[in-house]
Amino acid sequence: MTGSLFPRDRDRAELGTGAVHVPGWLDFDAQRGIVEACRQWAIGPVPMRAAVLPGGHPMSVQTVCLGWHWQPYKYTRTADDVGGGRVAEVPDWLITLGRRALAEAYGAPGQPGYAPELWKPEDYTPDTALINYYAHGAHMGMHQDKDEKSSAPVVSLSIGDTCIFRFGNTSTRTKPYTDIELGSGDLFVFGGPSRFAYHGVPKTLPGTADPDCGLAQGRINITLRMTGMS
User: Which residues are noted in the entry as Fe cation-binding (predicted)?
Assistant: First the structure.
């Protein structure tokens, strides 16, 4: 195991222009509230499932979507690969949380370090959320988030077990890349020149979540995005 249990003293870091890691951004009350919401989203109106990649290979993570339904490699309004229903809308509180996350990463008007060239928080209205659940042994290969028609930043929230998060470059799945640990409550935002960087999750670290987060085992990752679709 590469990390200590329940670390709370990690430092904010920038892995590239527009790629910002803020450890421990969500407090435990917020984490527990999100976990409870995820449990409801997982049962419908479109249930959580393992998306199937081209060629028939299912992903090792389980996914449920809000706003738009994602399947490799496209968005649709109806979940044609799992019953044909329409997914739930992105709730207002989650949109607000996304704007707060962007302000935390890039600053807000009147704050030191404000970077409106990356994206203005007030202009951030995510219309889809992908909720991924990583059970023990689940992983995510290196990929780009490029199914959206918008270049707005991706906001990523982590709850539960720590994972190894690999953040690379915009040209290739291979090196150079940086491995960091994303723990429960961590925020990671990538936009601007880093928006289309390859990234993935080689592994999770079972047993590393603080019980106060509300998730007994595994890892939840929520990514908020603007699709640019109507």
Answer: 143, 145, 199
